[in-house]
Each structure stands twice: as structure tokens, then as C-alpha cells.
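Figure 3 (text version): C-alpha cells given as input.
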């Protein structure tokens, strides 16, 4: 496993904040033209695609179950203003799904584009 904090510092911080009791702080990390998609699969044939801009991210944060799932880095990399992240979602410490995330940052280090997908179908650990 690489050292994700050094390899993708923005996404490492993003998931740490997302797992905290104050996940709304991630809204301070997005640009005015922010857009995202989070494809969320719990298995089977269905998946939910949360997508949009700031207002939709606020809606996504409001519907989350705080403290239920946590994000754990497996590997990460950065190329220019793009960060890539492979991680594991755990529920009560037990691996539940794998996720991949990509972020494009602006010159100030805030996220402009964010794409995340998670699935329980393939675990990397």
C-alpha cells in the first residue's frame, strides 16, 4: 500500500472530513463551478447516481448516515491537478465495498470536478 496522504492529499482530507461529525466542512473545499457524480451501488442491479453542483452536494450530505460507514485508503496518486484514489468502505470496521474517486483541483487547491463510484461486488482486501 502506498502512503495515500502524501499521494493524494486533497482526497485523503476530503474523506477524513466526510467521515467526521462535521462533514459539511467539505463545502468549503469546492469551487463556484463545482460539479460531481457519486455512483452508489449496494449490489444487485441498482445504483443511485447523486450528481450536480453545490446544492446537490448539500442534499447528498443531508441524506448520509453519519458515523455508519468510514472510508479507508488503499492507494492513491496525483498527476498535476488530478488526484486518483482507491479505497475501501467499512461498516463497523468490516469491509463493505470498494470505491474509486477522482478529483480535479483548481489553482487554489479546491475541487472543481469530483467523480466517485462504489461497489460491494469487488473487494481489494
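Below: residues designed for each position.
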Amino acid at each position: 500500500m502506498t502512503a495515500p496522504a502524501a499521494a493524494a492529499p486533497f482526497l485523503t482530507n476530503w474523506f477524513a472530513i466526510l467521515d467526521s461529525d462535521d462533514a459539511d466542512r467539505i463545502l468549503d473545499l469546492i469551487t463556484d463551478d463545482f460539479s460531481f457524480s457519486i455512483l452508489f451501488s449496494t449490489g444487485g442491479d441498482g445504483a443511485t447516481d447523486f450528481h450536480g453542483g453545490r446544492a446537490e452536494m448539500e442534499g447528498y450530505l443531508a441524506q448520509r448516515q453519519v458515523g455508519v460507514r468510514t472510508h479507508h485508503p488503499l492507494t492513491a496518486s496525483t498527476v498535476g491537478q488530478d488526484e486518483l484514489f482507491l479505497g475501501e468502505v467499512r461498516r463497523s470496521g468490516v469491509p463493505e465495498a470498494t470505491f474509486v474517486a477522482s478529483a480535479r483541483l483548481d489553482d487554489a487547491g479546491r475541487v472543481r470536478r469530483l467523480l466517485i463510484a462504489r461497489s460491494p461486488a469487488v473487494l481489494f482486501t
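The helical segments are 4-7, 9-18, 54-63.
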